Fold these 3 entries.
Entry 1:
Amino acid sequence: MSDISALRPFFLSVICTGNICRSPMAEVTFRNQIATDEFLANRIVVTSAGTANWHVGREMDPRARAALDQAGYSQPGTRAAFADEGYLNRHNLVIVMTREHLRDVSIRLTNPHTRVILLRNLIEPGLDLDLADPYYGDLQAFIECLSIIKEAGQRLTLELRRQLGADAP
């Protein structure tokens, strides 16, 4: 008999400030990277939200969309959402872009089973580095941000495989 917990979806959220730049790029990238992994595909639900409610309901920034398109990611992101307590508590894993997001999420989150990690710690563990906001930059700033997100996503898929028992007998 299979383990019923293996059949439950694993909910992953990516958080930035306004949910129109970094987190929607990460949402699309991570969703794509997860979908190409036979073990993880159809097990992980990826969403994104912002710690501020300034842009709720808006599409991602056109420069974020252009960077994704240039990288070959044509999937749409979700419209901007607000990471309130209820939203955060529904997730197994929350990935944040900055230490400020980490603080904001930690204050709102009341589910003790939700794990929160800083995105760049996936690449450079323990350094607690922020992923700079490309919002005030040009398309190149978004492309550079996406490059870091893609690298983090590769590490994330390895971590999710380990955490969900991909190599277990």
Entry 2:
Amino acid sequence: MEAGLDAYQQAAVRTVNPALDADARLLDAACGLAEEAGEVLAHVRKHVMQGRPLDRAAAAEELGDALWCIAALARSLGLSLGEVGTGNLAKLRARHPDGFSADASG
């Protein structure tokens, strides 16, 4: 997993605004992640609450934008996406060793 995520991150962060200082890059990525997550939520909300067809292509585009923000945010924190993903999988394995359970999800 690490190689693919890290290759994506390396390619994606080439498009981070080089005029921003380290704190501004951090804030830009964090704010962008919240914004893009909100856009994904809007597509899902319109589908579930308003009965509109789910626009999977638009949702996929917003997910890609969110992934870019995660890649940039991780880089700003000195982390690779591979490290983030591997750490998350370890946490999930410890919490849910046999797969999801409602008892362990609290």
Entry 3:
Amino acid sequence: MSKLMVEKFGRVGLLYGGTSSEREVSLMSGAAIHQALQNLGVDVVVIDVGENLLQELPSYQLDRVFIALHGEGGEDGTLQGALEYLNLPYTGSGVLASALAMDKLRCKQMWQGMGLPTTDFSLLDSDSDWAAILERLGGAVMVKPACEGSSIGMSRAQTAEELEKAWRDAAATDSSEQIAVIAEPLLPGPEYTVAILDGQLLPSIRIESNAEFYDYQAKYFSDQTQYLCPSELSEQREQELQQLCLQAFDSVGCRGWGRVDVMVDAQGQYQLLEVNTVPGMTSHSLVPMAAKAAGLSFDQLVEKVLEVSL
């Protein structure tokens, strides 16, 4: 432990694991962040989050929290609200921004209202006219649960039968009766992501997956997925992409750090996909890759994320 780091940050609780469908990714992110915090000399307590977190947290005598939980319960404003109640500073976005970013449906509705570019969509349910939706959205769609991450529950559809099955598969990712599932036009790509760290825009990354789309396996385990960073855009296109991502990030009310995902449509226009308020920090993750291109080591990135929670 470093005396300087203890004076700067106090005792830090690293929250990871949890019970969401993204637990496996969170465990990997948490392990990498834990190693970095140890390298930095930070006094860190590792906490695999269970159902009794609120009762247990006071006993750790923490000064702040590093959130490495992905998905429901860690990235959706629930945990952030609890930490505010306990008066514990934490990394990343606040309650409202976390909740809004996690909900792709409401996020898209807000962007449409603001005139930011994001594709049209249909909200699916058991009464949907599958053929009519397909026709309206261009004949090929991507179906996704509105409140999942890591591409969980996502699939393509090009026929009415495939669309109904895709809706059922996406709806099955959550036992809740209230789960929202949306269909969006299938975009030809490419896909880009831009990380934001304390107001600084990091170099964009172009993602090239040989899978049907950039799915869970391609994101976290495949060595076939290619990442171009810098992404070989012209200076003007890079600037246009970065400014759009910053607008999207700010519109949701995000703070500290995060990542905005974008795809290109058939006309070559950028279309916003989503904002990630607790991006992955694994060996295959995008924010560490962008930080490296900007001259920041993984340890420096982790320290910076923690710093902006002060």
